[in-house]
Design brief:
The chain has 425 residues and is of the alpha/beta class. The protein contains eleven helices and 25 strands.
Amino acid sequence: MSMAAPHRVVIVGAGFGGLYAAQALKRAAVELTVIDRRNYHLFQPLLYQVATGGLSPGEIASPVRHVLSRQGNARVWLAEVRDIDVENRRLLLDAGEAPYDTLVLAAGSHYNYFGHDQWSALAPGLKSIEDATEIRSRILTAFESAERQPDAEARRAWLTFVIVGGGPTGVELAGALGEIARDTLRHDFRSINPADARILLMEGSPRILPTFPPDLSASAERALAHLGVETHTGATVVDLNSGGVSVRSGDHVERIAARTVLWAAGVEASGLGKKLSERTGATLDRGGRLIVAPDLTVPGHSEIFVIGDLASFSHQTGQPLPGLAPVAMAEGRYVARAIQTRLRGEPVAPFHYFDKGNLATIGRNSAVAEFGRLHISGFFAWIVWLFVHLMYLVEFDNRLLVLIQWMYNYITRNRGARLITGPKA
């Protein structure tokens, strides 16, 4: 008698959704392959701290092979998916192919420049380690350039920082920049006062942190003001070049001379979603996300699950779930359970997300937190933010390193990873 071939599960993407799905399949009778074009899992919620010199990349990233090294049914492939052969159930890779019985797509998202993709070179977003180190270099280079700039107007442009997008990433970047200018670099320069830096946060909605309750948005705005950050709501960028940005507020357009512009405005799903839509006829939402069935599968293709930033799931509340790490983690665990339930020949219940709350930090001793009807801000919210983010780091080593670095930064008000790296401009 010959044994039946194991059920082949392929997961594309080793972010929160993909990695949590893989780990939850540890004891499943499956042959698991995890494919990612990078060899590490990145803890994106702390990426802004790499961009502002508070942490080093290795402290918030873990090699996927190491994370899954003790999981005997899992293998890791460093590859990029070029296309999906839905009919024959195989992925076409940059080199070779990967057959599957069940496919889990967790390919994530990238920043959306709303039809102005040429702006990406002038205003980098924050989705990868490369993005973070590029932003860090631009921020530090701006202060260095201002230090040796004799012309007052040119110096002001170097000391003007514009952040486009007032969601959690934009708020966290703005707060960290305020701390850099007022505390970290306070004694480092001779010709300039870093505290003279002008930091502007632009948000197209009527308030910053629009996904949070209004009272927490107001608390965050007050905390940013304390750090010297100017918030501009109802403001949209209409033009951008190497010399600055043009911003429309109502009928008025203002030109702001700024040599450093950072993008945290909107995201759109990975291009893999569009490919899958073309191959299956699945519908995409405005952000390029695949509209999935109640069990997170592609309608008409029960063998394909889509999770994380690539999925548009609105069956629970009528509104799509936000692109947050806890959502992706919950979806990853659900998919792993669903696969095992199917293998037992049992029906799969629809996905249901339990909202654990929403957190954003503004700076030292300052954060906002929403837990249902409970809204907190200030120091206690900041402590909660610290604890939650430490616990969500994948490996114990990372937790220990980040905790030590945070303690050192808190005591000294220093950011030890203030390195200008990459090709010289």
